[in-house]
Amino acid sequence: MTEKQRFASVWDAIGDTPQEAASMRTRADLMMSLAEVIREQGMTQIQAAELFGVTQPRISDLVRGKINLFSLDTLMDMAAAAGMAPVVKLSKPKAIARRPRRRVAATA
Q1: 85 in the Ramachandran plot: left (φ > 0), alpha (ψ -120 to 50) or beta?
Q2: Above 60 in pLDDT, residue 84?
Q3: Does residue 41 carry a pLDDT above 70?
């Protein structure tokens, strides 16, 4: 019988590392926010492309949620171009694992 694993989020489950999961989570949040702006403003993909400074096919990829096609930098640039003033917020780590110090052998 196999053991069931539990994850804090879907991103933790599909990410190979905590860093990859954090990147996917942040990119997904940005993509959803950008798509929401498009929807709320009633923009066509062409209008959104002009606003965000990208091509219409990029907007299509965005609204379809193709997260693997977008870097965090690109999404931040698109949000800034739309006047969204993106902000990065970090939380403090719960506990920092400390590595034991290596002893350096004395040389004579």
Answers
A1: left
A2: yes
A3: yes
Q: CA 1, CA 56: separation in Å to the nearest integer?
A: 49
Write out the DSSP string of 41-100.
HT--HHHHHHHHTS-HHHHHHHHTT-GGG--HHHHHHHHHHTT----------S-PPPPP
Q: Which amino acid is at 60?
A: S
What pLDDT score does 92 carry?
Answer: 82
Per the listing, tokens 């690109």 go with: 74
In the prediction, which pLDDT does 18 show?
74
pLDDT for residue 4: 77
> Cβ(53)–Cβ(81) under 8 Å?
yes
CB 43 within 8 A of CB 34: no
